[in-house]
Amino acid sequence: MFGLNSEILSIIGALSTEKSISKNIIVSAIEDAFAKIAMSNHYGNGCEIVAKMDLKTGEMNFFQKKIVKSKPIEVFEISINDAKNINPEIEEDGFVLISMPSLPIQYLPAKSIRNNILERIHSAEKQLEYDEWKKREGEIITGTVKKTSNINTYVSLGGKTEAIIFHEGMIKTDSFKPGDKIKAYIKEVKRSDKDCQVILSRTDNNFLAMLMAENVVEIQDGMIDIKAISRSCGFKAKVAVTSNDGRLDAVGACIGARGSRIKSIVDELRGEKVDIVYYDRDLVNFAKNAITPAKATFGSYDEISNSIELVIPDDQLKLAIGKNGVNVRLASQLVGCNISVIAESEKRKENQDKFNNAVSIMCKALDVEEQVAQFLVSSNIYTPEDLISVGIEKLVKSGVFEEAIAQELINRASNYVAKQQEEMNNKIKELGIEEDVLNLPNMTSEIAILLAQQNVKSVNDIADLSSDEFIEICGEKFANNSNAIIMEARKIAYGIE
User: Fold this and answer.
1) Are residues 54 and 17 part of one domain?
2) Confidence (pTM)
3) What is the DSSP string of 127-179?
4) Are 34 and 54 in contact (CB under 8 A)?
5) pLDDT value for 90
């Protein structure tokens, strides 16, 4: 055994107090240091060396660590029978420690031992620092700017801890110099072998959420919930809120009397404008709220494309879109689906064109006068297929058609649809379109033919298309079908679950 003097034992206690580190960690560091030195000098003769320190006497004992095997082969292995003489309860693949003679003094270089111990203590300090800051992930903290560059900003958090804000974590309008106080969100705490890194952010959506909670007591109390946030950092942000108390106006509470609460938040964000809007479970209503400051007069949702179209008064269209499209883009991010805006006058023209086109088709398909076709289209019967779905009974109930005439219209519609389908089928055969293509969800014969005319005839061909290419081939009319068809084709072609 090797004896450490009493001064070392007292130093262990002093280090433990000074560094706020457990004595066990320091003792373990000393033991490991001695074990490493012993190993480096082949003191274990091929076996792993374990050092154990007696905290009462300061004595250091050395042991060979041997693995228990039924048939030992290597020098670091021991038979199970011999092992049971040391520990009767030991089992195969366990290990036993075999006492060794004291390590010769010449094998104990003090500098190496000291470096090993200091390295372990430093590692323990960093682990404690990491544990402390890891608990604080998700908080807002105020620090002092230590150094800035075009890439990163370094922030002192007090003591030895230094945090970093990467370039993308800074708001474009931020301007800080060394010594300035800075508020940021603790986004992530990382632990490396040698260090602890605290990563801060001022652009993370959670930074805005935490600022809202700091300034709006009703959010802290759970009376108001933040449902969604979207940001164009430095320019504009949108926050959707809802009240858990029917008597409380969530938007008004967040804005504060004369805008006092929201002003504090905007000031901290260096002038980033923040729209507070009402959350709504109905996506169309939510989108109408999100498009503020514009007011939508009408909205419709397309489930296939997960998109919403909002009709906006002509004089508010630019307001709805925003500079460089930022307002409608943030509204889309907030709601979670694509929002498109259209002026009322343009929508009226679009509806009129749709109406006129439908009247033209119905006149041709049913061989009726324009007034009859107009009545049908005005009744939301846009196609011969729609007329077949409506049926004779509802046509008669309209009070416009007698039963015989209604029957004749249905017959003409059925003949037209059958003829069109026959022409489609012949065209499909002629173009050599694969059957799997026709079975794709949201695929129609018309789409399949348009694709095949551009030599896109198989599921694999469709899987290789982008959405823009699909729309270029098939036209805007089928824009809502594009993503669903392409994604399903890719699942089949690439074996995606």
Assistant:
1) yes
2) 0.69
3) HHHHHHHHTTTT-EEEEEEEEE-SSEEEEE-STT-EEEEEGGGS-TT----TT
4) no
5) 87
